[in-house]
Please model this.
Amino acid sequence: MANNLIVRNVESDVIRALKEAAARHGRSAEAEHREILRKALARPRRRPLAEVLAGMPEVGRDEDFARADA
Model:
């Protein structure tokens, strides 16, 4: 991985917060920056439709949602 990214005109309070977070996590500001970018751009795991449907709460019986003829 030999790619570089340069970020210019970053506010001093943002840089200070980055350095503080890096110190808390025991890594360099550059490594902290990479981790922040990695997390921000990570795509969520795709869940199968069956899993999504199984996770839906019970909200009534089928007849509760029957269409009323007008």
About this structure: The radius of gyration is 24 Å. The mean pLDDT is 90.
